[in-house]
Structure formats: C-alpha cells, structure tokens
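Sequence in, structure out.
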Amino acid sequence: MITDQATALRRPTQLSARQPEATGLTLDQVFATIAQHHPTRIAVQDGWSQLTYGQTDRQATQLAAALVQGGVQLGDPLFVHCENHRHALVAQLAVLKAGGVCVPTPRAPYEGGLPAAARQISARAVLCSRSTYDKDVGSIPSLALDDPATWRRIASAAPEPTLPRSAPEAAAYLLLGGDTSPTAHGRLIDHRSWLRSAADRSRRIGSEPQTVTIDEPPMSPAALAAMWWAFSRAGTLHTAPWQSDGQWPLTGGPDSAAVLTPADYAHHLATEPTDLPPQGSAVNPAAVVLIGGPCSRDIIARHFRARPGTRLWAEFAPADGSVPWTAQELLAGDANRPSTLDVGGPVPPVLLRVLGPAGETLPRHRHGELVAIGPSRLSEDVHRSGWYGHWTPENTLDLTGRQRPPGGAV
C-alpha cells in the first residue's frame, strides 16, 4: 500500500512553473485545471488519508454553490478554521470559487480570539471542524466540514452557474496579525501574488519536487506557501507521514522539498539522532526551504553537517511569512561569513527600503528599518518588518535584529 501511494505521489507533472502566472489564472482555476486533466492525482496526503484533485474540486464546487446561494458576495471575508489540511483545502477553494476572501484564524495573540476577529472584519461565515467550532462567534454562521449533516445540506444546493467568480487581481487571502486596533486590518494578498511567489520559488530552486512536505497546522503561513507551491506544480502536499516519524518533514524522499520555519528547523537539527540516513538515501529531501524569519549561521553549519547534499534555501518573509521579501541559496561556506543574519536579495516585484527614524530612505551601509513596498506602490502597500539592518555592497541585506540601533540610524 505504501508503495502504491508513493508511486502516486511521484507522477510527473505536465504544468510549467510559468504557466499559471503567464495565463492570468486564479488559484482555484489552476487547481481546477489540474483536476480536469488529472482527476486521480493526489492533492493532499495526510497520514493514511488522502484527497485527489478531482475529489477536492468537486467538493469545493458544491460548497461554493451553497455559499453563493447562502448570500456570500464578492469580496466577503470568510474564516477558515479547520482541524486538518483536507477540510481546510476544500474550504479555501470553495471561498475562492465563490469570489470571497480566505481569512486564516489569527495565530498571534489576538484579544478576544476568533469572535473578536470575526466581528472586526465583518466575516460572512466561519468554515470549521466540529473540534474547532466556536460558539462565541454569535450570529456569524459556522459550517463544520467534518459533520455529515453539513454535507447533506450542501448536496441539496442547486448547481451555481456563476462559478467560479474569482479574478486574478482580486484578493485571495486576508492575513491578520495580533493587533486589534481599529486600523489593523491585516494584509490582503491577491491571486497573482501567490502564483508569482510559487513560480519564482520553482525558478530559484531549479527543480520540480513532486511532493512538498510540511509539519505545520492548516492555514499557517508556511503551510499556505507550501500548499500553493505544490499545487502550482500539479504536485502533492504531504502533511503527515504514514507512520510515526520524529524527523518528518525531512524524510519525504529525494523527489520532495521540505518547507519549515527557521525555528522549527533549528529544533530538528538540535534534536536529530547522530545516525542519520546517508545523503542520497531514499528519505532525504532534495531541498529544504526555510520560510519566515532569517536563517542563522548555526543553522547553516548544522544543516551541511547533517545533509551535505541537500540544497538549503531561505526566504525572509516578516510581514506574514507567506510571500517572501528576499531569498537566497545558502552554501556550506556561508556558515563562516562575518554577518550574522544576511537575508539575501529582494524578490521582485516587492521593493525594499531601509528607512531612518523620520521615514527617510537611507544610503547603503547606514542602519534603519527594513520596509517593503508592494506592486501597486500605494500607501496601503507599505509594510514595516520590525527588523533593522543595512544594504551590503552585494545588494543583499544584513540584519542587526529587531531593535533600533542606539541613536537611530548610523
């Protein structure tokens, strides 16, 4: 059985990394295209449970029709708060097909929790599991996707001829932080940004992993990045091993790429046994991609001692952890570089600035706060990172930490 599943996970893809971005498709349309041509290909492998592209797309279309006929309008935010990745994927695709905006449940400290967040953004509904249902959301409808009664009601909905209602330039996700102030509305990321990010990641790494492995809860920033990277390649998101494995997601095989946060990888490296499988064995991934904060020199050194033949990539994404601001491949020699937190060069189309205390753009070698400006160049597209550093002569960024240097810019 394991052999059959492993073979299914490794079927060759026929989609180019450039195709979704070049054709102006939305996330749900990319998924539906794969479902149409390869309905039996596995989209999510979650332990022994799995969903194919065809099964997922059919369920999502049913749910989207029920959402539209229940009153969901274009641009309506809907929370996705599911227990497992399979239900979370169906929920996300349904929201996107209906023209809504997916809102992951805030994982940062959020005063009042989900009920307060739902009220603040005027959420239209909460798509959840029975175990994650929150009765305190009050009048906002909640649908538990692991409840058979929910699907009996959904199945009675008539086909919706207006689907899909998504558009490439429309917002696909609203990523909330922990701030509950009236002006803190989170960050909107459109379909094009997700697909561009996934395509850029494939071009940078220069390989096409058939499986992307994670050990992340549904809807976390790293899980979202890994998920759309896998689906943009017509690949499989593998979220849990078939059997108990303390080294997961680093044992997915040579045609896989493992996506982790730097903190999680540091924990793996610190607790790994000394008798790791040799490089080139059937368990080591082809690449490890670190998403979120900067990668320390200690992580680099430990990685190449443990997996000298596995490529290591780091993406710095401080605002939401999903769409990178900078990226770089790290080599064994980088562990000896003098800079502590070099995060690489910018990833277009995001523009990066190093700003002083008064908001002025600083020249190279002067320290200030790293700020990103999105493609539209509008004021709402300016995102502060909370990290301070400076540009190097190689057009990369060296960070000094989260505290402003004494005396401000230097």
